[in-house]
């Protein structure tokens, strides 16, 4: 039954998700002013760090939310998990020869390991890895941005989801590091499309606006072991397992160990302040607040997710 779980005594009891989310929001409020919005993308710098939203979607589509959960924000690196899933779903298994799956221990935009590691990025969630994934998705579909937008619209049922062109242009105008990463990998033969096309599609999928509800619903396929909202299969059970594993170890960059310790779930953050976390077999939770810590992860979203997993049985551990 909806919202029900079995207690230790074996009785079915209703879980009050709304109350759990309200408690998580209360836990996050006092720390919101400790974070700073990303300012290396000027269009994101003016976001209000006091905004907070959180939504939960169960595997069978029950949705709950609190705070600014219906307020669209820039999904940024959260788009990287959808790009990876779509590339694999289009038969991109050879992708794993072009990108590894080890935590980098370095910031998300670091260049340093690429030179000694022959242009093979450490994992698909740092910027270098996501550029390779975007290149593969572009080769497989002809439209990497469009593939991510269509998927988010279909899974969330929200046709308004789209790229925010002002954010994409702001990123492109200040995207010297991403351009450097892309050209450097191209010099090793690890990009197959023209560098400018890969960058355009990468900036455009990072600049998609969506809200906590949209993302919690769109993350459902990883909680359903590869099945989409309509019951069709996007990924094999094995690929869903592997993406969740790489999210746990690499989804929050050089803070992935701390995220696993505090939250204990596969999760992906973005510099727009969103964090999407997956609970295999149960559902997905998305929290958002624009203030970031030094690693580029939302201070408020992390505090809320930590409180949520401490107080509920939504955990993989
Ligand atoms: O390429 C960038 O820097 C941004 N489009 C995405 C970075 C990001 O979201 C890192 N996540 N915390």
UniProtKB/TrEMBL annotation:
Keyword Hydrolase in annotation: yes
GO MF annotations in UniProt: glutaminase activity
Keyword Hydrolase in annotation: yes
Catalysed reactions listed for this entry: L-glutamine + H2O = L-glutamate + NH4(+)
Domain of life: Bacteria
EC number of this enzyme: 3.5.1.2
EC main group: hydrolase
Sites where the protein binds substrate: 77, 127, 171, 178, 202, 253, 271
Coiled coil region boundaries: none
Family, similarity comment: Belongs to the glutaminase family.
Protein name: Glutaminase
């Amino acid at each position: 039954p909806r919202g029900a779980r079995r207690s230790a005594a074996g009785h079915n009891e209703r879980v009050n998700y709304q109350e759990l989310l309200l408690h998580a929001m209360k836990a996050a409020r006092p720390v919101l002013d400790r974070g700073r919005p990303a300012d290396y993308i000027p269009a994101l710098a003016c976001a209000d760090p006091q905004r907070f939203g959180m939504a939960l979607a169960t595997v069978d589509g029950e949705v709950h939310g609190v705070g600014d959960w219906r307020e669209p924000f820039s999904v940024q690196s959260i788009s990287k998990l959808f790009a990876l899933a779509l590339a694999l779903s289009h038969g991109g298994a050879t992708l794993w020869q072009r990108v590894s799956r080890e935590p980098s221990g370095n910031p998300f935009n670091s260049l340093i390991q690429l030179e000694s590691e022959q242009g093979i990025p450490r994992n698909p969630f740092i910027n270098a890895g996501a550029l390779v994934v975007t290149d593969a998705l572009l080769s497989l579909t002809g439209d990497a941005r469009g593939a991510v937008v269509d998927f988010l619209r279909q899974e969330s049922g929200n046709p308004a989801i789209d790229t925010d062109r002002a954010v994409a242009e702001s990123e492109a105008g200040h995207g010297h590091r991403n351009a450097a990463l892309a050209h450097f990998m191209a010099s090793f033969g690890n990009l197959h499309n023209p560098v400018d096309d890969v960058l355009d599609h990468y900036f455009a999928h990072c600049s998609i606006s969506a809200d906590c509800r949209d993302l919690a619903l769109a993350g459902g396929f990883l909680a359903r072991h590869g099945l989409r909202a309509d019951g069709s299969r996007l990924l094999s059970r094995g690929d869903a397992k592997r993406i969740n594993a790489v999210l746990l170890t690499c989804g929050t960059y050089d803070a992935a160990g701390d995220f696993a310790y505090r939250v204990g779930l596969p999760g992906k953050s973005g510099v727009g302040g969103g964090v999407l976390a997956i609970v295999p077999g149960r559902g997905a939770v998305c929290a958002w607040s624009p203030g970031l810590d030094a690693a580029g992860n939302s201070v408020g979203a992390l505090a809320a997710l930590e409180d949520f997993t401490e107080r509920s049985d939504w955990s993989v551990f």
